[in-house]
Amino acid sequence: MGIKAKRTLGNTITYIVLIIISIIWLFPFVCLFLQSLRSYNEGGGGMVEYLLPKQFSLDSYKFLFSQDSQFVRWYLNTLVIACFVAVLQTIVVLCVSYALSRMRFKGRTFLMRFWLILGMFPGFLTMICLYFLLKQFGLTQAGAIPGLILISVASSGMGYYVTKGYFDTIPKALDEAARIDGASRARVFLTMIIPMSKPIIIYAALVAFMAPWCDYIFASYVAFGYSDSYNVAVAMQRWVWTSDYQGYFTRFCAGGMLVAVPITILFICLQRYYVEGVTGGAVKG
Asked: What pTM, to 2 d.p., does this model score?
């Protein structure tokens, strides 16, 4: 077998494996979409009938936007939290990362190592303490939305590592030249470093946006039964806990499809910058 034939065979096997992996990966999403189109009153059946509904209907989507559902409010709650966290957390991470990358001060190394070790502990270990602390300021239940924003932003500086790695790849000679010309550190940061850091900014914003968008543990704990403060994850979980599981399951699938829309659009539009930010930040200067 010649080299060309071996290469063709290898490429064919690779494509077949990738196609199989893609089918396995996409299968749950296709099922979710098909179930969201199932009629509310359609009963169960065999495997084929379960995967492919007999009647296609938009009743579940109509219910989400009807007066009988609070889905729009929950969706807006989630969007508000995610947008505020994305903006504020990105600003905090950029400032902390720039300070750790460019400035040298006493305790800098200890602080970075301490944050790395502290970040290894899962955040839900502090749920009880955070809940009682937020409760003292009225940031639970009716005030859960600003409370969730505060929780996500307060400790965001500890996620500096990837962004700092990206800043380390930018030559410090640029900073020194600007400083000699009389520019302050703030001006160097805003007019020089930020314009050159578009990939890592988008990466930080995407990561910050996804965390509260998919959050269930903290959101359910802080809202604590107050439905007006639910995000979509908590609200939809309550749906599948109802006695009318068969009916609400189709609505759950329809809501899941709508929840996936913003994340999908963001990744499609910003995928190139996301990859550049990850690969650039992975290099330690």
From this structure: 0.83
